[in-house]
Amino acid sequence: MHVLSAKQVALVGLGAAILFSTGCKAKDTKAADEQAIRDADTKWSQAAIAKDVDAVAAFYTDDAKVLPPDAPLITGHTGIRAMWADLIRNSDRISWTAVTVEVASSGDLGYVVGTYELDTKDAEGKPAVEIGKMVEVFRKQPDGSWKACVDMFSADAPAAPAPNKN
Questions:
Q1: Are 56 and 47 in contact (CB under 8 A)?
Q2: 85 near 122, Cβ under 8 Å?
Q3: pTM reported for the whole predicted model
Q4: How many angstroms separate the Cα of 58 from the Cα of each of 120, 126, 163?
């Protein structure tokens, strides 16, 4: 058995201290994670604009929850996909924009606060525009991607008549 001298122990301790204070720090990925969430959110909105229900639903985790206005909580892919199919079928266009994107210091959760616009029809079938706000909570997936686990949106006011484009 080899016994280390006091000098060797001190050198090993110094090396360990240097290693832990410099080389072993967790890499700060906050900015990259925020950009990844912003990019995912943009692609998600583009899928809604393209009226691709399956692509829109794919941005949610398996246990996701959606809190739509004036409706009960929706949980899971089947219900979420059905909600989006109905929303897309009954609207001319839906899109949204992230205003704020933040990631928790833990690096596993993030959120988006933004605005949306929904071009739809009023009760009489006339074109109407709904402007609103939304909050999305994203969870980092094992593969490093980000998916929405909570999605909530609500109108700022009842849908207004669409502007005459003539």
A1: yes
A2: no
A3: 0.79
A4: 24, 32, 33
